[in-house]
Amino acid sequence: MGAKSWEDRENEALRLLNYGFRNFVIKEVLKKGEVIKSVPVKEGKYDTVDLIAQEGVTLSVPRRDKDSLKLIEVISSQIIAPVSKGEVLGKVVVKIGDKTIREVNLLAKDSVPKGWQAYWKLGLTVLAILLLAFIIRWIISKRRSSRRYTFQENE
Fold this sequence. Notes:
The chain contains two helices and seven strands; from the N terminus they run αβββββββα. It is of the alpha+beta class.
């Protein structure tokens, strides 16, 4: 620090510490494993999945900027099952003003297997085909039976 004596160095160090305590705050922005958001899952056994922070974020922020701290969630607009536990499904961007400070991945807290909803289209298609086959067979059998019995008019 360029001080000439121990006392000068101690005073300068104390001045710097006081400056830091007066002008900065320590803010815990995210906790590791904390649920950030529940999002819908299409075609899953469960309707939603919780997203958790992959890591924690603690920042030393200038007091004047502590209110401009923003968390911006960037999550896929459509999540489709199956989803594996720990799969990255989005991220949180930590910003102060317009400056990006950190990005943290959002992970699926639990697995979401495919549900019955994924199979309903297949089931409806098979049912429609069977119904159509039944109707065609019924029509053909009606035509055959009407041909067997022909009526002749008596003169």
